[in-house]
Design goal:
The protein is mainly alpha-helical. Helices cover 95% and strands 0% of the residues.
């Protein structure tokens, strides 16, 4: 009887492990949260190690965002 309980417990633990792995792969909000956290850490590291590159990147993103807003606004107004 002990062997059956042991194999049942092993199968249950394996199922739990598999379900957790599937949840990790399919849980998009958790993946996004992890990616954002990692991005923040990398941005902070870049800011400390190479401030000029960091602020150049920030300026480039600002230019792209500003250009996109301008283009969208112009497209709406010209219509």
């Amino acid at each position: 009887m002990t062997g059956t309980n042991s194999s049942t417990e092993h199968a249950r633990l394996e199922l739990v492990s598999t379900l957790n792995a599937i949840e990790d792969k399919l849980n998009v909000p958790r993946k996004v949260s992890r990616a954002v956290s990692q991005g923040k850490v990398e941005a902070a590291r870049l800011q400390r190690q190479n401030p000029a590159a960091f602020f150049s990147g920030v300026a480039a993103v600002a230019v792209v965002a500003g250009t996109a807003v301008w283009a969208i606004t112009r497209a709406i107004v010209v219509r």
